[in-house]
Write a structure and sequence with these properties.
Elements: H1 20-23, H2 27-37, H3 40-61, H4 64-160, H5 163-175
């Protein structure tokens, strides 16, 4: 039996399932969430910047011993940041996979909604066109019936003859 795919297919639920804010967030909300998820990375970046600033300050003052210490601190801070990034990547990988699956499902759902709306629009247009054609067929039929009635009247008049034909007929009868 094939296992269903999607956010609900995992055996153990994620801590983010059912949290709509996790999936529908803007950039600032995402930045805040990421800072809360992995607080060691910004701490490592800040430590690296502090070490560089301290090294620059020591070089300007001419204190090479302190500058050397700050460069070593920078190296340790960068290593700490990289380790924090790798560890956070492994720790949050399952939630990122879940997020990607949710985004894919959301895109598919939006595409399906768009397709359904387009089909409804086409059906409405088709119905309008069908109604219009039926109306035009009725109008054409009525016009044809009116034209037949006029032709029948004309033929009747021709058979009976107009006023001149009647006068001529009376004259012929009177002559005979």
């Amino acid at each position: 039996m094939e296992q269903p795919s999607g956010p609900m297919s995992r055996d153990l639920p994620s801590s983010f399932e059912g949290n709509r804010d996790f999936y529908e967030e803007n950039r600032w909300q995402k930045l805040g969430r990421r800072l809360k998820e992995e607080p060691l990375i910004p701490i490592g970046c800040a430590a690296t910047c502090w070490a560089l600033w301290g090294a620059t300050k020591s070089i300007r003052r001419g204190n090479s011993y302190k500058a050397q210490q700050m460069f070593r601190m920078r190296l340790y801070a960068q290593a700490f940041t990289i380790v924090a990034m790798v560890a956070g990547s492994f720790y949050h990988n399952s939630d990122r996979i879940l997020r990607k699956e949710y985004d894919d499902l959301k895109k598919e759902q939006k595409a399906q909604e768009k397709r359904s709306a387009w089909i409804k629009e086409l059906e409405a247009r088709d119905k309008e066109e069908t109604d219009w054609r039926e109306k035009m067929a009725k109008v054409t039929e009525v016009r044809e019936q009116e034209a037949k009635a006029r032709r029948a009247k004309e033929e009747e008049r021709i058979r009976e003859g107009g006023p001149i034909a009647r006068a001529v007929k009376k004259i012929k009868e009177g002559v005979e």
